[in-house]
Amino acid sequence: MKTLINLFSNNIRQYGMIIALVFITALFFILTDGILFKPLNLTNLILQNGFILVLAIGMVLVIITGNIDLSVGSVVAFVGAIAGVLMINNNVPVVLAIVLSILVGALIGVWQGFWIAYIGIPSFIVTLAGMLIFRGLTLYLLDGQSLAPFPESFRILSGGFLPDVFGADGLHILTLILAGVFSLVLIYMEYRSRKKQAAYSFDVLPLWISVTKMVLLLFVINWFAYQLALNKGIPMVLGIVFVLILIYTFIMNNTVMGRHIYATGGNKKAADLSGIKTKRVVFWVFVNNGVIAALAGLMFASRLDSATPAAGNMLELDAIAAVFIGGASMAGGVGTVIGAIIGGLVMGVMNNGMSLIGIGIDWQQAIKGMVLLLAVGFDVYNKNKSGN
Amino acid sequence: MSDYILEMRSITKTFPGVKALDDVNLKVNRGEIHALMGENGAGKSTLMKVLSAVYPSGSYEGSIYFEGEECHFKDIKQSENSGIVIIHQELALSPFLSIAENIFLGNERQSNKIMKWQATFSESKKLLEQVGLKDSPETIVKDIGVGKQQLVEIAKALSKNVKLLILDEPTAALNETDSANLLKLLDELRKQGITSILISHKLNEVVSISDSITVLRDGKTIETIDAQGEDASEDRIIKAMVGRDMTSRFPVRVPNIGETVFEVKDWNVYHPQQRDRKMLDNVNIHIRRGEIVGLAGLMGAGRTELAMSIFGKTYGKQITGTLHKNGKLIKADTVSDAIAQGLAYVSEDRKTYGLNLIDDIKRNITLSNLKRVSKNSIIDENKEITEAQFLREKLNIKTPSLTQLAGNLSGGNQQKIVLSKWIFTEPDILILDEPTRGIDVGAKFEIYSQINELAAEGLAVLVISSELPEILGLSDRIYVMNEGRISGELERGIANQENVMRYMTGSGGASNENIN
Questions:
Q1: In contact, B506 and B203? CB cutoff 8 Å
Q2: Residues near A206 by Cβ (< 8 Å), separated by ≥ 6?
Q3: How far apart are CA A233 and CA A160, in angstroms?
Q4: Any long-range contacts for A205-213 (C-beta under 8 Å, 24+ apart)?
Q5: Residue A227 CA to its chain's centroid (Å)
Q6: A149 cis-preceded (ω within 30 degrees of 0)
Q7: CB–CB of A57/A288 below 8 Å?
Q8: How far apart are alpha carbons A50 and A304 in whole angstroms?
Q9: Does the distance separating the beta carbons of A263 and B345 come in below 8 Å?
Q10: What range(s) does the ABC transporter domain occupy (chain B) (predicted)?
Q11: Among A243, B106, B386, B406, whose CB has the most other CB atoms within 10 angstroms?
Q12: Distance of alpha carbon A347 from alpha carbon A316, whole angstroms
């Protein structure tokens, strides 16, 4: 029991987040009479919030370097507008249009990264300007109107599902197979990490905690996959999010670039004196965030099946909130991709749950605000307590 | 009977683990300039903080009598109200406000919270005349030089009807003309009956201007010397400042010195903001294989500036001069260049410049040379752990695990991590800036042993330290700096506390009085 308490108090940040997610999910499960967990609704939940999760992944990198990006909502709209103009007005092939749109996102990142990293203007100012600039350009491009509809093949990006290669009736077999494979990978990774911890005489958790953790995790994953399989299988959006999580978690945990990002945010002066080119790090993180925002912009346009001037309004705040709920620190140097995803899921479940029980948009905003404040407040409170 | 304006009796001030002041007595005559001298860390600033109630009454033992009455100041405001004003080394002016606004900051000319600008400016003008500053009171403070800012500080003190003015290293940041002006002003104020306490490292200016000198050493009063008396020689003051025994706090070592590895030639560096202020003036040094070279100097002499300007030009502007390694000209314009050339610099401020406190030990150790534990930019975590573990054992970093956050460790262990981090880059030239600042005696000994070991492995080591015994105990050879210049070079055996201190204070060797 004592180890369990220790474990909990040492990792209160991570566990706190997960507990919050479980609590909020349970709350809405009860409030919605179980509708929350219906296969159709779970699919919806992913489709509705996919782009927030994508944006959160890009945003967490920015926030770890100690910066902020307020422009992503406008970039989502702007890239959507570009895609619309290309595909709908000019009949540019879908794939080429997607590539060009992503390129525009990268250029926006170059633009903002240049002012922030090399000229030294605070990211808050640069991206606030970006927020206005790109919203304005969107209005100009679209002439204040919506463009619709997109070609059929573009809509797969948000509305598509992984193909049902086995064609069983009422059950998407591929989904179950993928979940099974993923479960095995997780078990293997847990096994390897335990072995390594033992080999280097790090603290190894008692076996029963490891086993309990794995059983719970695998149950959630497989149950979730089963529910999806009952509907139409794994949505394309979930596939994209999943691949991004894998890539970025790997970058942040296992590559030199990831280390440099954490070091830049953790102590910029020390990083500079350690030979890290911190300006370059910040620049590329913003370029990356431009690309991510462009991807989210395409997903958003695809889901709406139109390019509209108001697209992505306030989306940056959802992404930022997700990152902070996920345990990142305003001062930089702290945060994880997984944390940001959990934070994004908290926001997503709340969005979905509150809509299901018919809470109006007014109260939805207010409640989300309170949750953000409490989540970060709880974190700060714990940090102060452990500081004494 | 003397007329004392200030008497501090038996002041003792303890910080956790350290006795900063131990039974200190200070008596200041009315209307004199009283100099307070001592090495870095002797307790001068602490004593003045006790006097000006930065440390309030009750946080120390002993008593203070000002103008014959015992005082119990609770905060700075109270001590200022009775006429004691301190001007700190780092000036406390607000850079974007005008001179006049700064003079009356916290003491505004007002009626019912509404500023009286007329009075503010006209009174400032009078005060500025008094200190001999001709600039308009409306000038923004950031637009005037440090010398003038110092005068504004004094004008600010005068506005509070100062009776006892304390100046902490007022000339440390000034050039010679500004220093001379300031000293003239102090003399002027003395004639108007204002008493001053002057903390300074500059022997010549102290002897020339002050009436009496009190020397502190290791938190104790050593003596008070009549500065205008016959026996007030610089030698005597130096002896009083350093006269303590060298104990065997250093591991034994047999140096094995090879050929010259690293040379700095004709090195000139200017201040990064004040373009006309030369911080390093024609510095030439060399270090040989296996040699430990000490770099001594008082605060502001330019030691850290030298180290950082060498290490990837991380300090200063308009840097001229050349660096040579094994006889060949090298370029080290960025930190990564410098690291690639085999340079390593352990900063004096480990928390600000050395460590990422919110990251763990192993990641801190490998940060400067991630190439060594990665392939195609992907980090091999097993290798990282093995390497970090090796250094942790080698340097005896006392922690339960490598995944501890650096911020949770003691100063000594943090210093060992910074040292490990730079050993991990496999340098040929290692620059250590105050490697034992703020760490306990045991950890100090371990770090000294480590430095010796590195020298024995063939590294060229440069040690910057403000502790003279440390410099003398470690170094095979010592460079002494004074006001941005190398003022002396002494071999082990010849160097002692007295002659090093003489070069440090710029009074030169005994046979060499005209070094400036």
A1: yes
A2: A3
A3: 10
A4: A205/A3, A205/A7, A206/A3, A209/A3, A209/A4, A209/A7
A5: 22
A6: yes
A7: no
A8: 13
A9: no
A10: 6-243, 264-508
A11: B406
A12: 13
First to last CA, chain B: 41
Per-residue pLDDT tens digits for B37-60: 887 778 888 899 999 888 998 889
pLDDT of residue A12: 63
What does the alpha-carbon distance between residue B354 and residue B411 come to, in Å, rounded to a whole number? Answer: 12
Statement: residue A388 has pLDDT above 50: no
Q: Suggest the residue from A63, A204, A256 to mutate for an interface test with chain B (most B CBs closer than 10 A).
A: A256
Domain chopping of chain B, boundaries: 4-242, 256-342+427-510, 358-426
Model pLDDT for residues B207-260, shown as the tens digit of each residue: 889 999 999 988 899 989 888 877 777 778 888 887 755 455 788 888 899 999
Two domains, one topology: B4-242 and B256-342+427-510: yes
Task: Kindly list the structural domains of chain A, giving each domain's residue range(s) and its CATH number in brackets, ordered by start.
Answer: 17-160+235-380 (1.10.3470), 161-234 (no CATH)
Answer whether residue A82 shows pLDDT above 80.
Answer: yes
Residue type, B200: S
Q: Compute the CA torsion angle B415, B416, B420, B423 (nearest 10 deg).
A: 80
In chain A, how many H helices and how many E strands? 16, 0
3-state secondary structure of B163: coil
pLDDT higher than 70, residue A313:
yes
**Nearby residues of B183 by Cβ (< 8 Å), 6 or more positions away:** B171, B205, B208, B209
Mutation site, B309, B343, B367, B384, interface A, largest A CB count within 10 A: B367
Q: Report the gap between the CA of B372 and the closest CA in chain A (Å).
A: 11
* pLDDT at residue B512 tops 60: no
- The share of chain B scoring above pLDDT 70, in percent, equals 96
Task: Judge contact between A290 and A61, C-beta under 8 A.
Answer: no
C-alpha pair distances (Å), A134 with each of A80, A224, A266, B345: 11, 38, 31, 45
- For chain A, say whether B385 makes contact (Cβ under 8 Å): yes
How distant is the Cα of B370 from the closest Cα of chain A, in angstroms?
A: 7
**Residue A338 confidence (pLDDT) above 90:** yes
Looking at the complex, does the CB of residue B345 fall below 8 Å from at least one CB of chain A? Answer: yes
CA B342 to CA A149: how far, in whole Å?
A: 61
The residue type of A272 is D
Out of B314, B382, B385, name the one closest to residue A273 (CB): B314
Beta bridge partners of residue B462, listed in sequence order = B293, B431
Burial class from Cβ neighbours inside 10 Å (0-12, 13-18, 19+) for residue A137 reads: middle
Q: What does CATH list as the number for B256-342+427-510?
A: 3.40.50.300
Instruction: Grade residue A5 by pLDDT with cuts at 50, 70 and 90.
Output: low
Residue (of B60, B27, B21, B42) closest to B199 by Cα position: B42
**Cα B424 to Cα B413: distance, rounded to the nearest angstrom:** 16
Phi/psi of residue A314, each to 5°?
70, 5
Two structure tokens written together for A168: 């069983």
Q: Answer with the residue of higher pLDDT: B2 or A353.
A: A353
Q: Span A170-185, mean pLDDT? A: 89
A274 closest CB neighbour out of B357, B368, B403 = B368
CB–CB contacts below 8 A, A to B: 79
Is A272–B314 a contact, with Cβ atoms under 8 angstroms apart? yes
Q: Give the H or E element holding residue B45.
A: helix B44-51
Task: Place domain B4-242 in its CATH homologous superfamily.
Answer: P-loop containing nucleotide triphosphate hydrolases (3.40.50.300)
User: Residue B434: which residues within 8 A CB-CB, separation 6 or more?
Assistant: B348, B464, B465, B466
Which pair of structure tokens corresponds to residue B268? 């000139």
